[in-house]
Design a protein that fits this description.
Layout: H1 8-16, E1 34-39, H2 47-55, E2 60-63, E3 72-76, E4 79-83, E5 96-99, E6 104-105, H3 107-119, E7 127-130, E8 134-135, H4 138-153, H5 165-174, H6 187-208, H7 217-231, E9 235-236, H8 238-247, E10 252-255, H9 281-286, E11 295-301, E12 304-306, H10 319-328, E13 340-342, E14 344-345, H11 346-356, E15 360-364, E16 374-383, E17 390-391, H12 398-402, E18 404-412, H13 429-442, E19 446-450, E20 458-460
Parallel strand pairs: 1-10, 1-11, 2-5, 2-10, 5-7, 6-8, 7-9, 11-15, 14-16, 15-19
Antiparallel strand pairs: 3-4, 12-13, 16-17, 16-18, 19-20
Helix pairs in contact: 1-8, 4-5, 4-6, 6-7
The structure holds guanosine-5'-diphosphate, 6-O-phosphoryl inosine monophosphate (IMO) and magnesium ion.
Residues 39, 42-44, 69-72, 158-161, 163, 165-166, 257-259, 262, 273-274, 307-308, 333 line the site of 6-O-phosphoryl inosine monophosphate.
């Protein structure tokens, strides 16, 4: 398949030409607006829905971290889409979709996703892919799965999505063993590099599993060159693209993949992913300075979920958890795994909002809690067995977090169908009380309330 660049890519090329006269002058002020959307829990908060909503008033949606481990669902007029690598602004025809250098990109998966969308009538136009994004290759996925199996045998598995994320970021840090998107543009270099890597990577795989098949360099290079045919028109220096846009007064929306409690530095290490999923990943993952990110929307569910291993203080491995899973259809968008479910943990959310410098919150899946008689909200942790050792701090460390017990406050539950509410006042009084409790505790306004998966099932405030 060969995608032809749409007329809009001329607009992008004019911004990104590498000739010196087209580099933006730094004396031109940045007049463009910038917003980031990030998850405040362990992923799957409904970021895709929020980004799709906000994309309507932005010129570009920019992914800066993660890879195809993300699964962002968007429902428009009853039609459900799941995005893994394509930014969630793709359903807004005038929005540029940017995959920044901080993303690890599986080129085959990206093409599959573009084709899948096209089959459903969605044309991926205005796509820009950073030449400096690193590639996820089939052997990364194999290594991910092998390592997980090995760890599982020792009861240590992370429960990764097996999308090759950890091994690809390891290679990025290793330098000599990685390939970048820009390498697809130089056939001779690519062939030589893959030949070297195939040998090295075969040895690495065999050190985990001696029966691993040898990587065939010619087959892999041919497949990559095939993919390059499709992707070449979209490969850019996206840092120049974004700075050019900002200086032309265009607005950017940064799309966090995964979530803050999975951030490799600020999450529940080692049960995290391998990138900076919080806003702290934006500068490194796009080349746009952090100081330019003006609004930060933290997205949270009205309860908590987690997929994979790791501590989860408010987990309800009981009828309450099952009810939330049933009502919220809590099964992974990427892997289909049942998500672990529990009460809202405001200690964790307030920590995540602090790390991100959130300016507002989006509260998602409120409808799922309808019918639960009494709602529990965790507001403090008890450390160990000492009832005097109470803290409002979160511990971004799996061992320490495993040693705390959550302390709850009870709030009255609400009943009935809230999915048709379109204003705050239409919600039942206990639901409004729940929302105001969260706002007071975290100290931030909730400007979006989601009462169903569809784009239209949304309450905007303020
Ligand atoms: P993301 O990874 O943060 O984009 O979230 P996911 O798409 O993986 O998971 C969120 C799930 O909740 C998806 O199935 C959404 O369609 C769904 N969803 C989003 N908002 C709401 C809501 O307000 N109510 C309900 N019932 N479902 C929602
Ligand atoms: P979105 O963007 C939920 C979890 C995995 C695993 C850990 C490491 O849809 O919110 P990885 O494959 O990244 O090495 O897995 O992180 N994880 C997610 N959980 N939503 C996600 O993304 C996730 N991305 C990674 O389940 O526990
Ligand atoms: Mg998801």
């Amino acid at each position: 398949m060969r995608l032809s660049p749409s007329p809009e890519t001329n607009f992008m090329s004019s911004l990104t030409s590498t000739t010196p006269q087209n580099a933006p002058s730094l004396s031109d002020p940045i007049t463009g607006n910038t917003t980031a959307v990030v998850g405040l829990q362990w992923g799957d908060e409904g970021k895709g829905k929020v980004i799709d909503l906000l994309a309507g008033s932005h010129d570009a949606v920019v992914r800066y971290n993660g890879g195809a481990n993300a699964g962002h669902s968007i429902v428009i007029d009853g039609q459900r889409f799941a995005l893994h690598l394509i930014p969630s602004g793709v359903f807004r025809p005038d929005t540029v979709s940017v995959i920044g250098n901080g993303v690890v990109l599986d080129p085959f998966k990206l093409i599959e996703e573009i084709e899948g969308l096209r089959e459903r009538g969605v044309e991926v136009k205005n796509l820009a892919i950073s030449s400096r994004a690193h590639l996820v290759l089939p052997y990364h996925k194999l290594e991910d799965a092998m390592l997980e199996d090995r760890l599982a045998a020792r009861g240590l598995s992370i429960g990764t999505t097996k999308r090759g994320i950890g091994p690809a970021y390891s290679d990025k840090a290793n330098r000599a063993t990685s390939l970048r998107v820009g390498d697809l543009l130089d056939t001779d270099y690519l062939r030589a590099k893959v030949a070297n890597l195939a040998e090295y990577k075969t040895d690495a795989l065999r050190s985990i599993d001696p029966s691993a098949e040898a990587i065939e360099p010619k087959r892999l290079t041919d497949a990559l060159l095939d993919a390059a045919e499709t992707l070449t028109p979209f490969i850019e220096d996206t840092a120049y693209l974004l700075h050019g846009m900002l200086r032309k007064g265009k607005s950017l929306l940064f799309e966090g993949a995964n979530a803050t409690l999975l951030d490799v530095d600020h999450g529940t290490y080692p049960f995290v992913t391998s990138s900076n999923c919080s806003v702290l990943g934006i500068p490194a993952g796009t080349g746009v300075p952090g100081a330019e990110v003006k609004q930060v929307v933290g997205v949270l569910k009205a309860y908590s979920t987690r997929v994979g291993g790791g501590p989860f203080p408010t987990e309800q491995d009981n009828e309450v958890g099952d009810q939330i899973r049933r009502q919220g259809n809590e099964y992974g968008t990427t892997t289909g795994r049942p998500r672990r479910c529990g009460w809202l943990d405001l200690v964790a959310v307030r920590y995540a909002a602090m790390v991100n410098g959130c300016t507002s919150l989006s509260l998602m899946l409120l409808d799922v809690l309808s019918g639960i008689e009494e709602l529990q909200v965790c507001t403090r942790y008890q450390i160990g067995d000492d009832p005097e050792a109470i803290t409002g701090r979160f511990f971004p460390d799996a061992n320490r977090l495993a040693g705390i017990s959550p302390l709850y406050e009870s709030l009255p539950g609400f009943h009935g169908d809230v999915t048709k509410a379109r204003s705050f006042d239409e919600l039942p009084a206990p639901a409004r009380q729940y929302i105001e409790f969260i706002e007071d505790f975290v100290g931030l306004p909730i400007s979006i309330i989601s009462v169903g998966p569809d784009r239209s099932q949304t309450i905007r405030r303020g």
